[in-house]
Structures are given as structure tokens and as C-alpha cells.
Design goal:
alpha/beta; TIM Barrel; 8-stranded parallel sheet; two-stranded antiparallel ribbon; 11 helices; binds adenosine-2'-5'-diphosphate
């Protein structure tokens, strides 16, 4: 079984999950089924991915009991605001075929809309009603999270951010630690781009007889980050979970950290905040 981490709301969240960004409905269904049969217990999707129905089907097809699976989805920018978010949640739950969701996140803060505090109030209500077990945010900066805490008295359980060997998010991780917020990583492999073939990563992989992806995922785990690697390839899905039986030493951690910092493979929130 995948190890779990206890969140600031008392929920136990698996330490690694499957991402399904850019997977089609059928692809997502097959990937989720494969992942759950391989031992994954967390799946991360979003309304905007358009594949929640596939995620729900994959869970059902796997035969793994619903209560053993930690399902994460997110409210999209267009549905921010109190009432719109409550409606968006119902629609996501219906597509997933689930009566409750384990974790519901605000996908982006979109500070210029100035709706994220209202959106957060809706998430607090969904949690109070038991329709969502845990609530959090994604792509938020400290100032946005501090505003949520000040206005609602409730801190997000997680902030899901871009994080990989080319982007370490040291400042945000320190902030999260100071507020008891867990860090989830999207694109933990850097979208399978150059970082996996970097010679430092290759050297560490070789030393352990592991794949580059496995040592990168190990790097996340040892920093206390919860990675959400995306794959629709069965062999990769299985390999990406097989990361609990070995350990990197401090030198190897530093080698992977030394790959670089400041390289975004997805939208950079700090640039978006100025325009949206
Ligand atoms: P695919 O889904 O075709 O298997 P990230 O999670 O960092 O965004 O990375 C996702 C990308 O990395 C996808 O293109 C995925 O391809 C690829 N990928 C996932 N796992 C591995 C792996 N173990 N080795 C190489 N590439 C991988």
C-alpha cells in the first residue's frame, strides 16, 4: 500500500498519485484502472481536463473499493464565485459518478477576478456538508493563501504547484511548512522533458539501477513533496509507483537539485496574476 501523509485537516492523503492532465476520457479510464490495479490510491483530475467521466469509469472498472481511493478534482476559473462553485462541484461529482470527492481544489487564484475568497467559502461549505473530505488550492501565492486564512479562518490542506528538478519552489515550500500546508507537485517529471535525460539524473538512476523518473520521484518524496506524475503508458504508470523501496543519499539529492531552478514547463502563475 502507498504510504500516507496526515494533512492539517486530519485527512490521510497518499504520498504519490496519478496525474491525468491531457489524457482523453478513454485514455484516463484505462490509465486509472491500470494505476489502481498497480497499487496507486490517489488520482488527480480537474473539471477543465474534460476527463472526469473517464476517471470515474476507471475507478469503477478497477474493482478497488471507492473508500480506498483518494480522488482530487478542481473548480475551473470560469466557475469561481460562491454559487457557481457549488454548481460546478455537483457537475464534477456527477461526471465522476461519485457522491463525495476526497479533495477539491481551486485550480487558479485568478486574483483580478477577486472571487477566490468566495470560491473558498463554497469549498468550506462543501466540506462542512461532507461532500468533500479535504479542501485546498492550486497555483496560489502566499498572499492569496494568507487572505483565505484571514477571511475564513480555514487554511487550505494543500497547494498544488509546478515543481520538478528544474523548478524547486523553495520559497513556497518554506511558506507551506510555516502554515502546515502540504505541497503537491504537478508536472513532477517536468513533463518528461529534458530533465529526465539530464546527466546528473541519469547518473543517480544508474547508481540505483532505477529509471530517471524513479529517482526524480524519490527526490520529491524525500523533500516531503507529494508528486502527481502523469502517464497513460502502463509500464511507466507501474514504474512511477515503485519508488518506496530505495533511498537517495544527500549527495544524490544535491545532484538532482543541481539540475537547475527557475525553468517553467507550464504557465508561470506570477506572470498570469498581473493579467488575470
Ligand atoms: P505518457 O503519458 O505518454 O506516458 P509530468 O507528470 O511531469 O507532467 O510528465 C508527464 C509526461 O512524462 C508525459 O508526457 C508522460 O508520457 C511522460 N512520462 C511519464 N512517466 C514517465 C517515465 N517514467 N519515463 C518517461 N516519461 C514519462
Amino acid at each position: 500500500a502507498v504510504e500516507r501523509v496526515e494533512l492539517n485537516d486530519g485527512t490521510a492523503m497518499p504520498r504519490l498519485g496519478l496525474g491525468v492532465f491531457q489524457a482523453g476520457v478513454d485514455e484516463a479510464a484505462a490509465a486509472v484502472r491500470t494505476a489502481l490495479l498497480a497499487g496507486y490510491r490517489m488520482v488527480d483530475t480537474a473539471a477543465v481536463y474534460g476527463n472526469e467521466a473517464g476517471v470515474g469509469r476507471g475507478i469503477a472498472d478497477s474493482g478497488v473499493p471507492r473508500e480506498d481511493v483518494f480522488v482530487v478534482t478542481k473548480v475551473w476559473n470560469d466557475d469561481q464565485g460562491y454559487d457557481a462553485t457549488l454548481r460546478a462541484f455537483d457537475a464534477s461529482a456527477a461526471r465522476l459518478g461519485l457522491d463525495h470527492v476526497d479533495q477539491y481544489l481551486i485550480h487558479w487564484p485568478r486574483p483580478r477576478l477577486d472571487l477566490y475568497p468566495e470560491t473558498w467559502r463554497a469549498l468550506c461549505r462543501l466540506r462542512a456538508e461532507g461532500r468533500v473530505r479535504s479542501i485546498g488550492v492550486s497555483n496560489f501565492a502566499p498572499e492569496h493563501i494568507d487572505r483565505l486564512i484571514a477571511e475564513s479562518g480555514t487554511a487550505p490542506a494543500v497547494n498544488q504547484i509546478e515543481l520538478h528538478p528544474g523548478l524547486h519552489q523553495g520559497g513556497l515550500r518554506a511558506y507551506h511548512a510555516s502554515r502546515g500546508i502540504a505541497t503537491q507537485a504537478w508536472s513532477p517529471l517536468g513533463r518528461g522533458q529534458g530533465f529526465l535525460s539530464h546527466r546528473a539524473v541519469a547518473a543517480v538512476a544508474e547508481a540505483h539501477g532505477r529509471t530517471p523518473a524513479q529517482v526524480v520521484l524519490r527526490w520529491h518524496l524525500q523533500m516531503g513533496v507529494v508528486p502527481l506524475p502523469k502517464s497513460v503508458t502502463p509500464e511507466r504508470i507501474r514504474g512511477n509507483l515503485d519508488v518506496f523501496g530505495f533511498e537517495l543519499d544527500a549527495t544524490e539529492m544535491d545532484l538532482i537539485t543541481g539540475v537547475g531552478d527557475g525553468y517553467h514547463v507550464g504557465p508561470d502563475p506570477s506572470l498570469l496574476f498581473d493579467i488575470s
